Amino acid sequence: MKLLGFNWDIQYAGAEALEKFGTPLPASTLDSIKRNRVALKGPVTTPIGEGFTSINVALRRELDLFACLRLCKIYPGVPSRYESVDLIIIRENTEDLYAGIEFEKGTVEVRRLIELIAELKQQRISPDTGISLKFISERASKRIVSFAFDYARVNKRRKVTAVHKANIMKFSDGLFLSAAKEVAKDYPEIEFEDMIVDNLCMQLVRNPERFDILVLPNLYGDIVSDLCAGLIGGLGMAPGANIGDRLAVFEPSHGSAPKYAGQNKANPMAMMFSGVMMLRYLGEKEAAAQLETALAQVISEGKTVTYDLKAGRGEAATTSEVADAVIQKLGEIKAC
């Protein structure tokens, strides 16, 4: 029986790092990821409307983690309206509105930008406006769509759907769509389609089984991945990864939920399923399969799961009790 060992290099980011080191993203954290090339990251709190910029956005930018990979698969025993969802969300990470190019209301910079828009486009914008820039390049679009098709080919998936709003944003989303169509020609064995994002959301709710891999620009990818998490029992069941050419950071899709901190009640499944993804990325396919099987069995039995998976089926387990149950189940699997 093969046993895996990890030498953990623990680093900090977010509010805790700000308190300890005076910065939310210390250089030592970035250096650690670059050195080790793989990281397993917990959720990090980002203030809404104030405070420091999103650590997730900063990590993706600093490490060029251009692909956000989120798996949305339903397991027997999860309370849901659906029975056979198995979707892959692949989101471009570096561009679009989430790139963080913003201009605050009332600043010199935003006034200059408003004047420039009036000059170039003859379009008047109210002076009490804040502006965020959406930009999409051909290079980044082709890179993320190629990543989606390569993932489909390696993992024997059947179809890639490019998601956009090109009917309205012809020069940004339109560019994304044209790049996707061009890349798709190099993968004739994989079915390709495109869909407008609002129609996609409706179709996902009605019939998620018709989709396989979705590839999306940054903002749509964030929203749609949460929608898909809702199909499989919630964000507590949604693992994720941010992947570049040489580096990868694995993390649950959900946020930090500070109101639950220290209460030992949050669902740890998304974090553990992210570990499954990490093991597969590292080539440890047997260990990944064993851990996924252990998680699936604990979910299916329904005895030791957190409140979000109970759906009235008795008393909820704590976070640590779920972890203990998965460890026990994993030991039984390894012993067989």
Structure description:
This protein is an alpha/beta fold. It has 4 domains: 10-61, no CATH class; 64-95 and 136-253, Isopropylmalate Dehydrogenase; 96-134, no CATH class; 263-336, no CATH class. Helices cover 43% and strands 14% of the residues. The strands form 2 sheets. An 8-stranded mixed beta sheet has the order 1-10-9-2-3-8-6-7, with helices on both faces. Helix 6 links the parallel strand 6 (159-164) and strand 7. Helix 7 (197-206) runs parallel beside helix 8, helix 9 (269-281) packs antiparallel against helix 10 and helix 10 (285-301) crosses helix 12. The relative contact order is 0.14. The model has no long low-confidence stretch (mean pLDDT 92).
Notable features of this structure?
alpha/beta, 336 residues, Isopropylmalate Dehydrogenase, globular, two-stranded antiparallel sheet, 43% helix
What is this entry, summarized?
This protein has helices at 15-21, 27-36, 55-63, 108-121, 138-154, 173-184, 197-206, 218-231, 269-281, 285-301, 307-310, 319-335, and strands at residues 38-40, 67-73, 86-92, 102-103, 131-132, 159-164, 191-196, 213-216, 239-243, 248-252. It has 336 residues and is of the alpha/beta class.
Mean pLDDT: 92
Number of domains: 4
Class of the largest domain in CATH? Alpha Beta
Strands of the widest sheet, in order across it, are 1-10-9-2-3-8-6-7
Class of secondary structure makeup: alpha/beta
The low-confidence parts are none
